[in-house]
Write a structure and sequence with these properties.
With 290 residues, this protein is an alpha/beta fold. It has one domain: Luciferase-like domain (TIM Barrel). It has 9 helices and 11 strands. The strands form 2 sheets. The protein has a 9-stranded parallel β-sheet with strand order 3-2-1-11-10-9-8-5-4, covered by helices on one side. A two-stranded antiparallel ribbon has the order 6-7. Helix 3 (88-101) links the parallel strand 4 and strand 5 (108-111). Helix 2 packs parallel to helix 3 (88-101) and helix 6 (188-195) crosses helix 7 (207-221). The protein is globular.
Amino acid sequence: MKLGLHIPDYTWPGGPASLGHDLARVGRAAEEAGFDRVSVMDHFFQIGHLGPPEHEMLEAYTTLGYLATHTSRVKLLTLVTGVVYRQPGLLAKIITTLDVLSGGRAMLGIGAAWNEEEARGLGLVFPPIAERFEHLEDALRICLQMWSEEDGPFTGTHARLERTLNSPQAITRPHPPILIGGSGERKTLRLVARYAQACNLFPGPDLDHKLDVLRQHCEAEGRDYDEIEKTVLFNFDVGERGEKVGEIVQQLRDLHRRGFEVAHGRVTDVWKITPLEIIGREVLPAIAEL
């Protein structure tokens, strides 16, 4: 089983003046510990369950580019990009650039967006949810076209592109993996089955049901369910001295038994580095056989 580090919070003790240095240390430590991937949020204000909107928040793709320079192995992605925050042709170009400059380590994490407060605050377009899902399918189709040999025009429900030229092309072939975040049964999981290489689900008692729904969508789309990577959000709180490691290992084994291949989430007090070292020393060896 693989682990992913998600970094959703930048309000760290050193403040903005040391944030670049501290973030580089976290990225290197995650890689050294054995994490498979590192993600950041695509938000501009902090979200409610993590802190007030005034807390520090870095722009996602600038941050991933910075992390790319301080790591050499981990995959890099957002968890997840709000589709209406960037024009889809530009988004494909951003992911391609990250893939090229990181040596083929980019993933596209994407979803329909939900945070109306930050969108309205910064003057971003934020249409109703049904329309956001239409934008999401347009964006997925545009990215796939721009990562192909086809550079002609594109016409979708909302997007109109005269030429989908993308040079240089991504290093990752046939294209950077697409991860769609969210658990919506009618639309989100259907789009996973149709377009994505990975899903990311929210933890809860209905996880088995969500996987069953995804399986049904795969059958309807003629897609092999087993080729989709199943990832789930996870809270890595190992305790002050690692006293919660056993509990975490048991939870990870249960998730693997249920069909999940990646547990991806926040590490409590990640800026201390010690929690990452504990995970690398005690958690990853315990799940290496899964």
